[in-house]
Amino acid sequence: MSPEIDPGAHSAAYLSAAADLTRTIDPTQMDAMAGGMAELRERGGRLFILGVGGGAGHASHAVSDFRKLCLIESYAPTDNVSELTARTNDDGWETAFSDWLEVSRLRACDALLVFSVGGGSRELGVSVNLVCAMELARRTGASLYGVTGAPGGVLAQLADVVILLEPPPGLRTPLVESLQALVWHALVSHPDLARKQGHWESLAAGAQGTGDVDAPAGNHRP
Q1: Residue 129 belongs to some domain of the structure
Q2: pTM over 0.85, yes/no
């Protein structure tokens, strides 16, 4: 931590910056992304969710929600650590995602959703594995969506719909990754996209139907 930063002010500053950044998101872009993914489901396409580091964690969680709540066939290459490390070891990190997508027969009816703080750059040698995957999506005609914090990155340049965040430089990574989670949770609960409610939302709806607004009776998952 920089000595100029007052530790006692960090939490308040972080929450304030997160709130300010959330208000800069264009809701029409989120609606457009939800609409595009609803069309993806209708045409029988698959959703491939990509990220590295924190983005890989988002991808795994998002796959679960898009499958369970939105009934979209979804996958993340980072969920298969054996294949990912084998490809990285044998063929190189840069092509690990694009080669995986080629074996998965990425098609024009499919889509990629990419979580990347910097958006990828060949020139800077940053997240080139994501760049290769996004370029493959453009070549095959697959739709490309993303959430990023860099207007000059490949994701911002190539995406059909992108949520572009501009956080304070000193908090770029944590804030972008925080809001990536906010965006995809907004998507999986979007009326145009969601087909099922989350567990606690369905319990709340049932409780309202019986007039019991407190915890419903019976044994339920925590």
Answers
A1: yes
A2: yes
